[in-house]
Amino acid sequence: MNNKLHGPLFLAILSTLMAFASLSTDIYLPAMPIMANELQGDIELTVTGFLIGFALAQLVWGPISDTLGRRLPLFIGMVMFIIGSVGCALSTDIQQMVFWRVFQAFGACTGPMLARAMIRDSYTRTRAAQMLSTLLFIMAIAPIIGPLAGGQIIRVTSWHAIFWLLVVIGGLMFFSLFALPETLLPENRVKISLANVFRNYSMLLCNREFMRYTLCLTFFYVAAYAFMTGSPFVYISFYGVDPQYYGWLFALNILGVMAMSLVNRRLVLRYPLENLLKVAVTVATIATLTLALVVKLQLGGIVAVVVTIFLFFSMNGVIAATSTTAALDAVPSSLAGSASALIGSLQYGSGIISSLFLALFRDGTPWTMSWIMVIFTLSSITVLLRRGPLPENRSSLN
Questions:
Q1: Helix and strand totals (H; E) in the chain
Q2: What is the DSSP annotation of 206-272?
Q3: Nearest-CA neighbor of 116 among 48, 190, 183?
Q4: Is the backbone of residue 365 left (phi > 0), alpha (psi -120 to 50) or beta?
Q5: Which sequence ranges are marked TM in the entry (predicted)?
Q6: pLDDT for the residue numbered 239
Q7: Distances (CA, A) of 68 to 64, 222, 337
Q8: d(CA 338, CA 71)
Q9: From CA 179, how far away is CA 284, in angstroms rounded?
Q10: Which domains, ranges and CATH numbers included, belong to the chain?
């Protein structure tokens, strides 16, 4: 294995790539109520549009990366992200904003998708779970800084500056990619045409073990996106939290993710991934049921909401790493790019369900957000419990 794969620079770049999805949305969360007024439309559609683009584009980039390698799609994707961010900054109505958010997503999706694939290329199963936990810990800085930075930006200037900042970040990221090694060796690349490669998705969809863990993660993220999309209106509009302080409440949840990611690095060495995943999803489900109860009965106010959301969101530090590792371990290395693409497509595309539900059923209270989270955490634990243990560990490095 290339020694660069053990270096801090390699991990730093992959962590930043993993953060592109959350960074692209979280940074403008505090500005959403202002943007809704200025752009005259459902601002949730900008999240929906981004997630649609993010989900669909991965299905294209995955097979391409299995054929051409990981680095070239990353370079192309970063250029598209920069162009899309410029378009968002210059948008004057909701239609333009949604279009450029979709375009932005077509580039941004290459980051987390190929970061996961590069980890799968490089490490065995248990080590991969450790590495993903490390990446989740480092990338969690973005959701902390994002809303805080967005809140301060709109305090001194307009929301347009948020997207100009993303242009700068995209440019810096583009140049950092030159330091990233190629992890998919030529002999491990798919040698058939791209048209045939796309047929691999049917194989993945029929792989029950792969889909079990993928759907577990997908349903959890429907609930997570219900909070991420709905929380600005719950905290700012319903509970009256100042937009510049909203970021601190959001950051609290990310601190929980970071803490659990660190804990998970040790836990994966002592306990089966299956057991860790079951416990984490169970805790998340209990948290959302408690959230729905306190909201419905109007108990505890914003403190009760913050505490239960913190407990739910913290479990992402375990669920994301263990479920992703288990799913990728269920497929051969030649399908790692396509498998990572399908995981990412369903994981981030799940937010489309959340944002549409919130737009259709919003009642001005936290209740809609709460029942969406309950339904899909229950779905997550249901699909996880349907079958037995994880497959055997891979025995050697790729």
A1: 19, 0
A2: T-HHHHHHHHHHHHHHHHHHHHHHHHIIIIIIIS---HHHHHHHHHHHHHHHHHHHHHHHHHHHHS-
A3: 183
A4: beta
A5: 45-62, 74-92, 98-119, 131-149, 161-180, 213-239, 245-263, 275-295, 301-328, 340-361, 367-385
A6: 86
A7: 6, 32, 11
A8: 15
A9: 38
A10: 8-181+196-384 (1.20.1250.20)
Closest by Cα among 303, 287, 298 to 241: 303
CB neighbour class for 292 (10 Å; exposed up to 12, middle 13-18, buried from 19)? buried
Count of C-beta atoms within a 10 Å radius of residue 141: 16
Is residue 390 pLDDT above 80, yes or no?
Answer: no
Crossing angle for the helix pair 8-18 and 125-139, to the nearest 10 degrees: 70
Which DSSP state fits 31?
G
The number of beta carbons lying within 10 Å of the beta carbon of residue 142 is 23
User: What pLDDT, on the 0 to 100 scale, is given for residue 104?
Assistant: 94
252's tokens: 């609290």
Q: How far is CA 159 from the centre of its chain?
A: 23
Output the pTM of the full model. 0.72
The answer for 298, left when phi > 0, alpha when psi is -120 to 50, beta otherwise, is left
Strand segments (E) across 70-150: none
* Cα–Cα dist 194/296, whole Å: 51
Q: Distance between CA 284 and CA 227 in Å, rounded? A: 13
Tokens 């993928």 label which residue? 214
From CA 92, how far away is CA 158, in angstroms rounded? 13
Tens of pLDDT, residues 304-338: 999 999 999 999 888 988 898 888 888 877 677 78
Q: What is the per-residue DSSP string for 243-255?
A: HHHHHHHHHHHHH
